[in-house]
UniProtKB/TrEMBL annotation, chain A:
This is Rod shape-determining protein RodA. The chain crosses the membrane at residues 12-31, 51-72, 79-95, 143-159, 166-185, 191-221, 228-251, 331-352, 364-391, 397-416. It is found in: Membrane. Signal peptide: none annotated. Keywords: Cell shape, Membrane, Transmembrane, Transmembrane helix. Its main location: membrane. GO terms for molecular function: lipid-linked peptidoglycan transporter activity. One of its GO terms (cellular component) is plasma membrane. Pfam families: FTSW_RODA_SPOVE (PF01098). One of its GO terms (biological process) is regulation of cell shape. It is a multi-pass membrane protein. NCBIfam families: RodA_shape.
From TrEMBL, chain B:
It is a single-pass membrane protein. It is found in: Cell membrane; Membrane. This is Penicillin-binding protein 2. It holds the Pfam family PBP_dimer. Its main location: membrane. NCBIfam families: pbp2_mrdA. It is an enzyme of class 3 (hydrolase). Its EC number is 3.4.16.4. The keyword Oxidoreductase does not apply. Residues 46-209 form the Penicillin-binding protein dimerisation domain.
Length: 427, 638
């Protein structure tokens, strides 16, 4: 049932943004890896040549994804999930280690990263579980299972070690929220992050004082208007203070120095400017260089292939995680804003698409797609422009890398396929 | 609500990113200047600095190419040490030692292995150098001085510092720039402009080819040679005469304002401030605060001019019509200010202007000065007129020459005295010292020489300057070729000049005549004081002399100022006489005089105030040359 009908009903706006990002991404990979010697863009010994090949492969995958029955994905999601988990597990005996992380299978012509597949599979599996008629997300047990779907790949990926990728799975909590997980979970998570950061910045005593003050003020102001859950509030505060103490413990005893340094840099915990500068130039070297590269681009940028810092390879891993700095240097504020707007537009469009699904599975999967794309985009660009600590995950459709491109595309196009099929629902 | 949550987070994050990006790329944006971009290395090709020649085309300053063998230890491959050492002509042990030292300094950065090879060695080595990776030859250019004189005129060059770099972005670290003298004033002409090649680097600092295929590269432009107006031979001779004496000498060609010589004593050899020993030598010179060799006395030392100033008062009085050349005044071996008698050593008697000048009679000029002030109803008015006339000779203000520094000197105005004595609370008797060039009046040697040139020209002068040709072409800077007219009519100069000529014929400089050259001049003896242990102590008088020659069509106007040289006819008069003869005749006929001047020093005089013991001043210890003992002692005046 592929062919014309899919092409007619597919959401062309998303496809267009996708193609735009893909093109801009490749142009910047070309620029990052360009040297004066090799001039052919099809030279597969170069990274941009390889990437072009991957794009070709990806287009083949798109056709395949669109050609398959829409119901295939729902039906086989559990199987796919199991396969992905087995592949993750199989890394321990058979994986190939690159840069200290055993995250790849060596397939000869290219390296497959199963955690990329796991993202797609988990999004599908989570949607499948949540959309099951027997699942009620208000139930604690079902909440636990839903979390378990996310937790299994995390547990398999963290020890590779690849904490960045593991983080991505947590983003899918959004899906569960969308489907009815009470918002106070989010409130707790937010409070936890807040306590974590404020503890690092001001210490436990101040955090306790803040909390106490907050409760007192709350009680004073709200006493007459409504019933105050005094006991739960105080217990939350106590838990928060205990958490704050544990943060200190974890930070000082569990974290390694490099992790501590990342936080020192991010939250400016180190007050000694000399030491801070040293951290900036060592632990923060990548961010420092990428910020400088972006800064030097100015409003209009230095122009295509004119980025001297890009050419001089000043930003490490520029064609992968730091690809956005090339945009910054060569295309300036105009270029970076364009990319940010394209991502924002795509994500908003996807939210719109997800919300118009009649089939809950499609909607939940849609949210899974959005969560994954969003967390990549948020952490990657946030890191490159220096507002988030260094967490190495790629920018979707942009960064060099075959697995990443292939599975991000499959992830997106499965949803577009589901969306194109939404009017024929009801199986 | 939940539907909106995700959308709003997406929008907020998008806005945050754009905010951060606009902060980075718009607010804190600083365009990578080609020079500041860490990814681009600029390799400079320094042009040779322009040569400096004297007025007759004799070389004063050139360049010495120096070739340093450089080494980058990390890039050194296994080599036949013995053969290489033979090639470089150094000991094997020394080679190893130097290499070790270079490695300690930095394995990656170039160090000098063998400094300053000769041109021959360079030619021999150049081709073979390629066989030894890690070694290369770097050409440097050092200033070479073809004279041991004129350090004060030529100035020196040194590496640019942070301040220069901030001021002028065209310089880069390590480049040389003129610091004083000609080197500073004509920096842009002499320097040329450097060539530059841009090389793209990667983060390991490796070259990865030309940046943009070299389209931005610039070829160096050689510095231009310049000719200056200094007479090398005269300058060298003058500096020899100044041996052991402090003071300044300036000689000017009156018809053009070209500075023929500009001597400051003591001075130093210009080659002291070249190359690696520059800094050490400079400190030594700079911190010699007693004899101050780096202080250019010819243009910076301000002092009262003494009696030569009398000629100007004569000219002002003639112009104002308060005297005529035949006007006479009586000298009572001095003159009265109120009831006080101020001394004069001219011998006393009735003096007309001619005698007043050649005998340097203080009383004559005190009376003349009073006459000028009596002409006007108020002293203010008179002071205005007087200072306007005097200033028209280039005194009391910067000359506007092309020297790197200068001083204004002082010609007091009515405002000056009002401030000092109070409005309307002073009169000509308060300032009568000005009549004989003492008191509040002060000038620099170059101003004195310029004043003399103005007299020699009978009423105009050209701004003194040192530039003559740039790149072989005569240059005419409008300000230097336009005559500056004094406020004195031409006709008044002749009687004054006659008086000055008589200084040589029968006056205070009778013994320093030059055979066959008619000179006009004026001696000066300037009282001066210092403070020793908080007591104002008088020192031996300064010896001053101005002269020009020949009287008709003057070729040279000169001012000589010798600190503590006693009366004007003594050191200053003799030195001026020798320099005039040297310049006009190109040889010295009076060898005995020359010998005395070259060998006599004033060191013992300069040591007196520092001896800590009482000392005599104005001692008469003119050693061997009895024949030139002056007939009339000159007037130290109060």
């Amino acid at each position: 049932m592929a062919g014309k009908s899919v092409l007619k009903r597919i959401d062309w706006l998303t496809v267009f943004i996708y193609l735009a990002l893909l093109t801009i991404g490749w142009v910047n990979i070309y620029s990052s890896t360009f040297t004066d010697e090799n001039l052919s863009i099809f030279d597969f010994s170069t990274l941009h040549g390889k990437q072009l090949f991957f794009i070709g492969v990806t287009f083949g995958a798109i056709i395949l994804v669109l050609a398959l029955e829409a119901s295939f994905y729902e039906r086989f999601s559990s199987v796919l999930y199991i396969i992905a988990m087995v592949l993750l597990l199989g890394l321990y005996p058979f994986g190939k280690t690159i840069a200290g992380a055993t995250s790849w299978y060596d397939l000869g012509f290219f390296n497959l990263q199963p955690s990329e597949l796991a993202k797609v599979a988990t999004a599908l599996a989570l949607a499948k579980y949540l959309s099951d008629i027997q699942t009620d997300i208000k139930r604690r047990k079902d909440q636990l299972y839903a979390f378990l779907v996310l937790l299994i790949p995390v547990i398999l990926i963290v020890p590779q070690p690849d904490p960045g990728s593991a983080l991505v799975f947590f983003a899918m909590v959004f899906v569960i929220f969308r489907e009815g997980l009470p918002l106070y979970y989010l409130g707790f998570a937010f409070l936890a992050v807040l306590v974590f950061i404020t503890t690092l910045m001001f210490g436990t005593i101040w955090v306790s004082i803040f909390l106490a003050l907050f409760i007192v003020l709350f009680l004073l102001l709200k006493r007459k208007t409504f019933k105050v859950p005094v006991f739960p509030m105080i217990s939350i505060a106590v838990i928060a203070i205990l958490f704050s103490l544990s943060v200190n413990f974890v930070f000082n005893n569990v974290f390694e120095q490099r992790h501590r340094d990342r936080f020192s840099l991010w939250l400016r915990l180190e007050k000694d400017p000399v030491k801070l500068e040293k951290i900036r130039k060592t632990i923060g070297y990548n961010t420092y260089q990428s910020e400088k590269a972006i800064e030097s681009g100015g409003f209009f940028g230095k122009g295509f292939l004119e980025g001297t810092r890009t050419k001089g390879d000043f930003v490490p891993e520029q064609e992968t995680d730091y690809i956005f700095s090339t945009v910054g240097e060569e295309w300036g504020f105009v270029g970076t804003t364009t990319v940010v707007l394209l991502f924002t537009l795509m994500l908003l469009r996807l939210v719109y698409l997800a919300e118009r699904q009649k089939n809950p599975f499609s909607r939940m999967y849609g949210y899974g797609v959005i969560s994954i794309l969003f967390i990549h985009y948020f952490i990657n660009i946030g890191m490159v422009i220096g507002i988030l600590p260094t967490i190495g995950i790629p920018l979707p459709f942009f960064s060099y890398g075959g697995s990443g491109l292939l599975f991000f595309t499959i992830l997106l196009f499965i949803f577009l396929k589901l969306d194109s099929n939404r009017l024929k629902e009801g199986i | 609500m939940k539907k909106l949550l995700l959308s709003s987070i997406i929008v907020i994050i998008g806005l945050t990113f754009i905010g951060r990006l606009s902060y980075l790329q718009i607010f804190s944006f600083s365009a990578d200047q080609l020079m500041e971009d860490p990814a681009i290395k600029a390799i400079y090709d320094y042009p040779e600095r322009g040569y400096i020649y004297d007025r007759y085309g004799k070389l004063l300053v050139g360049n010495d190419p120096a070739y340093d063998v450089m080494v980058i230890p990390r890039e050194v491959k296994a080599l036949d040490t013995l053969e290489f050492c033979q090639l470089l002509d150094i000991e094997k042990e020394k080679f190893k030692k130097e290499l070790r030292r270079a490695r300690i300094y930095s394995p990656r950065l170039p160090s000098v292995l063998v400094p300053q090879l000769s041109k021959q060695d360079y030619a021999r080595l150049q081709e073979k150098m390629r066989r030894y990776p890690g070694f290369y030859i770097q050409k440097r250019s050092l200033r070479y001085y073809a004279t041991n004189a004129s350090a004060n005129v030529l100035g020196y060059i040194s590496e640019v510092n942070e301040r220069d770099l901030a001021k002028n972005p065209n310089y880069v670290q390590g480049e040389l720039t003129g610091r004083t003298g000609i080197e500073k004033v004509y920096e842009d002409t002499l320097r040329g402009s450097k060539g530059v090649q841009y090389i793209q680097k990667d983060r390991f600092n490796r070259d990865i080819g030309k940046y943009k295929d070299g389209v931005l590269d610039v070829q160096p432009v050689q510095g231009k040679e310049i000719h200056i107006t200094i007479d090398k031979e005269l300058q060298e001779y003058g500096e020899r005469l100044m041996h052991g004496k402090r003071g300044g000498i300036v000689a000017i060609e009156p018809s053009s304002g070209e500075i023929l010589t500009m001597i400051s004593g003591p001075t130093y050899e210009p080659s002291l401030l070249v190359g690696r020993k520059r800094s050490k030598n400079y400190s030594k010179l700079h911190y010699d605060t007693i004899s101050k060799p780096t202080f250019d006395r010819s243009i910076l030392a301000e002092a009262s001019p003494g009696s030569p100033f009398k000629t100007l008062n004569a000219l002002v009085a003639l112009q104002e019509g308060v005297i005529v050349p035949s006007t006479s005044f009586k000298c009572y071996n001095g003159f009265y200010v109120g009831r006080t008698l101020r001394g004069c050593h001219c011998g006393g008697g009735t003096r007309n202007m001619n005698v007043g000048i050649y005998k340097s009679c203080n009383a004559y000029f005190a009376n003349t000065f009073r006459k000028i002030y009596e002409k006007y109803t108020t002293t203010d008015e008179a002071q205005d007129v007087w200072s306007k006339h005097i200033k028209s000779f280039g005194l009391g203000d910067y000359l506007g020459s092309d020297l790197h520094t200068g001083r204004k000197g002082r010609i007091p105005t009515k405002e000056y005295y009002d401030k000092w004595y109070g409005d309307n609370r002073w009169s000509s008797s308060y300032i009568i010292s000005n009549s004989i060039g003492q008191g509040e009046v002060s000038v620099t040697p170059i101003q004195l020489a310029n004043m003399t040139a103005a007299i020699a020209n009978r009423g105009h002068y050209f701004t003194p300057h040192v530039i003559k040709k740039v790149a072989g072409t005569d240059i005419s800077i409008p300000d230097f070729v336009k005559p500056k007219h004094t406020t004195i009519d031409k006709k008044h100069f002749d009687p004054v000049i006659r008086g000055m000529a008589d200084v040589y014929k029968k006056g205070t400089a009778e013994y320093v005549q030059i055979p066959d050259i008619e000179i006009a001049g004026k001696t000066g003896t300037v009282e001066n004081f210092t403070i020793i242990d908080s007591v104002k102590t008088q020192l031996t008088d300064h010896s001053v002399f101005v002269a020009f020659a020949p009287v008709e069509n003057p070729k040279i106007a000169i001012a000589v100022f010798i600190e503590n040289g006693y009366y004007g006819g003594r050191y200053a008069g003799h030195i001026a006489s020798l320099l005039i003869e040297k310049y006009i005749k190109r040889e010295i006929t009076r060898k005995d005089l020359e010998k005395v001047m070259l060998s006599t020093t004033l060191e013992s005089e300069y040591a007196k105030p520092y001896s800590g013991e009482p000392f005599k001043i104005n001692e008469y210890n003119w050693r061997s040359l009895h024949a030139i003992k002056p007939k009339t002692e000159e007037n130290p005046s109060k």
